[in-house]
Design goal:
Layout (H helix, E strand, L loop, with lengths): L2 H19 L3 E10 L5 H12 L8 E5 L3 E7 L4 H16 L2 E3 L2 E3 L1 E10 L6 H14 L6 E3 L11
Parallel strand pairs: 6-7
Antiparallel strand pairs: 1-3, 1-6, 2-3, 4-5
């Protein structure tokens, strides 16, 4: 199974569960921008290793593509709750990483989408979270999804 199909399947399963529970789910799309000269694959793995223990047992984080990380947050109450996690991810990225014996920094931007507000299926949620991430400006390090969510909130 390809990476994309696996992510869609896992998100579909999570959506089924939150729908049965009458809950919401947030998808965070994080673009990682390591400093020049860093191996992007090693950086992604280091970020995932640092992030995973800080998530709840019900949350999930996945590497996606060459420079992305996806985080699924079932049971969030609001865009504000998801934004709190997005800010925590940005603080985590601000902490220096030691990769291959040298200290380095990773910048990033985060977009989010919330089920059911910004989509009812994996494709729509992933597309809206990515669109929000792409809209994030350099001075605004995370951005909420379109479709009624607040835009331009600073970290």
């Amino acid at each position: 199974m390809g990476e994309n199909a696996e992510i869609h399947e896992r998100l579909g399963q999570a959506l089924g569960e939150v729908e049965r529970q009458g809950e919401r789910l947030a998808v965070l799309c994080v673009q990682l921008d390591p400093e020049p000269g860093a191996d992007p694959e090693v950086v992604r793995e280091q970020v995932l290793l640092r992030l995973t223990p800080r998530l709840r047992a019900t949350d999930a984080a996945f590497l996606s593509g060459a420079d992305r990380l996806l985080v699924f947050l079932p049971g969030v109450e609001s865009v504000g709750d998801a934004a709190t996690v997005a800010r925590k991810v940005m603080r985590l990225l601000a902490e220096p990483f030691v990769v291959e014996g040298r200290e380095m920094r990773v910048e990033g931007r985060v977009g989010l989408a919330l089920y059911p507000d910004h989509g009812f299926d994996p494709s729509a949620l992933l597309r809206n979270a990515e669109a929000a991430m792409l809209r994030a400006e350099s001075d605004v390090r995370w951005h909420a999804s379109p479709a009624g969510a607040p835009d331009g909130l600073a970290s």
